[in-house]
Design goal:
The protein contains 4 helices and no strands. By secondary structure, the chain is an all-alpha fold. It has one domain. Helix 1 packs parallel to helix 4. The longest helix is centred in the last third of the chain and has 18 residues.
Length: 90
């Protein structure tokens, strides 16, 4: 794997922060979808585990925890998901 450049790391940090903040505004069902997307984006070679039933607070904590483990492409996918969710809400 190639090491990310400084601009890629900066973009990843910005996207992670934006996702963290905007995920609070999503309804619970969309937070659950976002969590599934983040779980699938993690760089593990095994299949993503099934997401158990969670309260809204548990979903927020799980989203924030997974944000620290996703690569830039996963963060970009999650940002697009949030943008689509915002547009659909209007």
């Amino acid at each position: 794997m190639a090491r990310p450049s400084g601009s890629e790391i900066r973009r990843l940090i910005e996207l992670r922060e934006m996702i963290k903040v905007e995920s609070l505004r999503l309804p619970t069902s969309r937070q659950r979808d976002l969590l599934k997307l983040l779980e699938a984006a993690r760089p593990w070679k095994t299949a993503a585990p099934q997401i158990p039933e969670m309260t809204r607070g548990e979903l927020v904590r799980a989203i924030r925890w997974r944000l620290g483990t996703i690569p830039l492409q996963g963060a970009m996918d999650a940002a697009r998901f949030i943008e689509r969710a915002r547009r659909g809400k209007r």
